[in-house]
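Hypothesis: this fold can be encoded by more than one sequence.
Test: take the structure tokens below, design a sequence, compare later.
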């Protein structure tokens, strides 16, 4: 995600902070400072750090449970609205998704109970907000209550929050992933709209005051639910397909010693936009994209070799790679296309983004693809 930077690494997972989260800390501290001076500002920051730790523990609940099912998590990002652990892939088994989604709120519940127990042990009040102590006990009280709110909020059946994921997993056990996601996304978007109206003050007369943060969360949730539904549609539409079914087999490959002028000729001659670049033995050396070609032309001139303008090290895809993995690698490469090689390493095709979109459109329209043989 843009605007985020790494602050550390725990057990193979990068912990990142989004800049807006830091902005929130600064804003909060400044607000406390103007009201209560330096002491209040320090206390506000300490409170946020404690909250930050709780959110991180919650996320590691998800991460450790995911790891039990062999799903790795490259990073976790802390945003003002909470944490976001990025799973390398979604588990296919609904039961696994259910457990992964439930593990975070379970951690939050344990934290809240532990703080509650501690407050009880020292005889501090826990139930009356008006008795909030401004000192150290007050901080523990605050953190406990925030965890309670966090827990309830996360358990709302609003996709893609934990409660929504749990709902999707429960539905998927009976209805399959695709229908379950559609329903869960719709419930989530409906819930997001309600949250948004609440935030805008539509329910003020029933005691639900307006709150701009709620509006922001609602907007985020609404779009995230739509994005998740779309991604599941894509993945399920491509189920059972491999790279072999999707790739282009009629294409031009350029030798490393070809000139950029020759590449321009090839570009103009057909519809191909990306060209695999191969060495004398047919091994893929890189990919020349249209943008790379244009940049190379203006910087090096038409006489330069394509080798100098190509993107080197475009990792070729094996023919038999399943669709969803190919899509992921294509996304990770940042390239508009990737070469496809057979078992012997010979270049046999090209998988482009346009290709993928076309095939999915055809499939979603309910047309048999690839065409049945015979
Ligand atoms: Zn969570």
């Amino acid at each position: 995600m843009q605007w985020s930077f790494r602050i550390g690494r725990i057990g193979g997972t990068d912990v990142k902070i989004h800049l807006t989260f830091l902005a929130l800390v600064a804003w909060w501290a400044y607000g406390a400072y103007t009201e209560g001076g330096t002491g209040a500002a320090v206390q506000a920051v300490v409170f946020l750090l404690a909250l930050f730790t709780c959110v991180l523990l919650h996320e590691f609940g998800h991460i450790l449970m995911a790891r039990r099912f062999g799903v790795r998590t490259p990073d976790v990002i802390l945003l003002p609205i909470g944490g976001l652990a990025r799973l390398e892939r979604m588990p296919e088994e609904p039961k696994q998704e259910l457990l992964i989604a439930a593990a975070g709120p379970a951690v939050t519940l344990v934290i809240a109970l532990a703080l509650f127990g501690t407050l009880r042990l020292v005889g501090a009040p826990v139930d009356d907000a008006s008795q909030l102590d401004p000192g150290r006990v007050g901080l523990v009280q605050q953190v406990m209550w925030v965890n309670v709110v966090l827990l309830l909020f996360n358990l709302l059946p609003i996709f893609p929050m934990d409660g929504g994921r749990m709902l999707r997993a429960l539905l998927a056990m009976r209805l399959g992933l695709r229908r379950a996601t559609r329903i869960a996304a719709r419930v989530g978007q409906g819930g997001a709209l309600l949250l948004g109206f609440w935030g805008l003050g539509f329910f003020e007369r029933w005691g639900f005051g307006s709150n701009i943060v709620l509006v922001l969360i609602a907007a985020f949730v609404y779009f995230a639910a739509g994005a998740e539904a779309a991604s599941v549609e894509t993945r399920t539409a491509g189920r059972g397909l491999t790279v072999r079914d999707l790739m282009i087999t009629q294409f031009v490959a350029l030798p490393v010693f070809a000139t950029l002028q020759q590449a321009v000729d090839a570009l103009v001659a057909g519809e191909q936009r990306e060209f695999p670049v191969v060495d004398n033995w047919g091994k893929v050396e890189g990919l020349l994209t249209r943008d790379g070609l244009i940049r190379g032309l203006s910087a090096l001139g038409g006489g330069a070799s394509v080798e100098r303008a190509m993107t080197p090290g475009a990792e070729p895809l094996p023919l038999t790679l399943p669709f969803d993995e190919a899509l992921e690698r294509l996304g990770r490469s940042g390239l508009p296309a990737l070469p496809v090689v057979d078992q012997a390493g010979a270049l046999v095709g090209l998988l482009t983004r346009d290709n993928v979109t076309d095939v999915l459109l055809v499939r979603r329209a309910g047309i048999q693809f690839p065409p049945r043989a015979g």
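The domain at 243-364 is CATH 3.10.580.10 (CBS-domain). The two ends are 47 Å apart (CA to CA).
Hypothesis status: open.
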